[in-house]
């Protein structure tokens, strides 16, 4: 590949997301002007806030579960399997993990290991139901995972009540029994402290997110399974003809996606030490959003997650400084997401057209 | 038996199913211990209608879109938009204008979906997810800008909303006719207190008594949509987009245009559903998060309704019934007895499956039936979450047992590019 075409490829890859961010900045500015706020002051506040170490730490804390959720969705997306059910999988996995974690006391590594295993197991099993419905009855995974989300949300609401910690009435604690310290992943606050004093902690689940990201990269790009997965996504008929069992691929991808999805709630559990009733929601759908921004690429998903975390952190500061309504961050998310997916599709089509033109030119040369 | 049913006109078949359902409930009411008279109470059937409307409209919205080959999992988002715009319109211009504005609001969500999927060819699921993520943000922003400025409004809710007029059927349910109160025919039959007949009359009366005009309009849409999709040129063209767009293209049909319009209509219907949730028929207020996944339940109704308007209506009523009953049934006895209905239904599925020699299905259905029966016998009430997950469980069971009998449009969900 020549230097020129490489540069062009990078440009084409980045055109859509960068264009989308710019578009959302312009669009939000117009919305803010209509709403009577000063967009420049608002953007200045956002960046000033993001330059602070504490904000950066809280951004990473927010990005961590989003990233894991993004990877969970990406595993399915790589073979055109839409696991819309990460939402239900992570909530169900989180409450089971918190319950088991609160019920036992084991030495550190085993306690943490058990919690993670339970989360992955529950997440995987719940996604496995969709896998089973697909492979046994040919039921579309989008429909089944949507319905399983509904069931999971109901079950979680019931389990929160069922597993409510008994404990001392004087200190009314809401949520499952607290997890002993041995089960809590230690935080990484010492790292940002190298750069300055901070008041908030850096989540230790970041390590899990990094491990998940690296494993995903290795799995997709360096293993036979990853090759089969990509092949099934690129051309299911060719993959089948090439001896890749489609049903087993669907089942494995679903189980893996669900197992990773089960880890999404860990950051919150390790932070609070329990599953509390107002557990953070919508991480599943936002994880899908982040994956779409990052085009299923391990590093791309990370960038997407950080962008989302930045917008969420900005929304908090706007509430404090009151330069603009904080909900503008949600609008920006929506605009970025929609224009990015449209942008990717346009770029893809331009590429296909260019390639066709190149092939035609070559053929003309030969002839 | 099945042969005879097939020869009858469809409205009669549906009526027979309905009467059969009421008879089943009456039987349960008869054999179940405790006071479960709510099962066939007119109040319950009336509430069922109201609860069914948003689910049905979301389902009909999904029908339009998916008949044109565009999967629409963003219905929940369009419902949210419809709810906000409906509330805003009602506050400013009254309930009827509010309904229209709610439809426009849902249509705006659909416009985005149509541009993404039809114009740009983005994957339908991806665009749907984007709308699901974006819609709550948009309404939150709008509330913070507009509802906070209203008396009684806040960032999560609107002021209280006005409703529209009501209608009671004359003669059958004792409605007014030009200022004269007509006799209440079904009410009289109800008071005879003859098992089955009076119960049926009581249930029927609930469907005709003090209906909101919104509800009536919503249910009239079912035959209208049926007619549009299956009896007009427009409908035929919409359907060909979902079955075989290339064939339509070869006939000179502008597939993009029909897909686009169908998706817009889909959003408008969901917007109607959203506005209905905000209207006094259900909440009387815009409240953040109060769509309660009805968009997804609508999708479920679309599937078990086999992509047909009457089926969607039946599915919505089926899903709405336990929800409406649960709201009225404070001691939980009546909802508890629904478990028995489930047992009977699953036993029938098991019987049906074993007759066809499908052993796995029969065994599974029988197992679930036995479990439900044990649960029924062991407990006096069912928890609230059971009612909430019921629609989703039912659709999963239906998909599992009857997926071969369901048929979605052949080209549903496939991106279509002209000339490819």
Describe this structure in words.
The complex is a heterodimer of chains A (367) and B (420). Chain A is mostly helical. Chain A has helices at residues 3-34, 39-50, 53-77, 86-103, 108-137, 141-162, 190-193, 205-222, 224-234, 236-241, 246-262, 266-272, 283-293, 298-321, 328-366. Chain A has a domain at 67-181 and 201-282. The longest helix of chain A has 39 residues, at 328-366. Chain A is globular, with a radius of gyration of 23 Å. Chain B has 17 helices and 4 strands. In chain B, α4 (75-93) runs antiparallel to α5 (95-119). The model of chain B has no long low-confidence stretch (mean pLDDT 88). Classes of the chains: A mainly alpha (367), B mainly alpha (420). At the A-B interface, α6, α13 and α15 of A face α5, α6, α13 and α17 of B.
In short:
By secondary structure, chain A is mainly α. Chain A has helices at residues 3-34, 39-50, 53-77, 86-103, 108-137, 141-162, 190-193, 205-222, 224-234, 236-241, 246-262, 266-272, 283-293, 298-321, 328-366.
* Helical content of chain A (DSSP H or I, runs of 4+): over 70%
Structural class of chain A: mainly alpha
Strand order of the largest sheet of chain B: 1-4
Contiguous uncertain segments of 5+ residues of chain A: none
Query: How many individual β-strands of chain B?
Result: 4
CA radius of gyration of chain A is 23 Å
Biggest β-sheet strands, sense, barrel of chain A: none
Number of strands of chain A: 0
- Biggest contact: A-B, 45 and 44 residues
Roughly what percent helix of chain B?
55-70%
Q: Can you tag this structure with a few keywords?
A:
heterodimer; A: 367 residues; mainly alpha; 0% strand; B: 420 residues; ABC transporter involved in vitamin B12 uptake, BtuC; two-stranded antiparallel sheet; two-stranded antiparallel ribbon; 4 strands
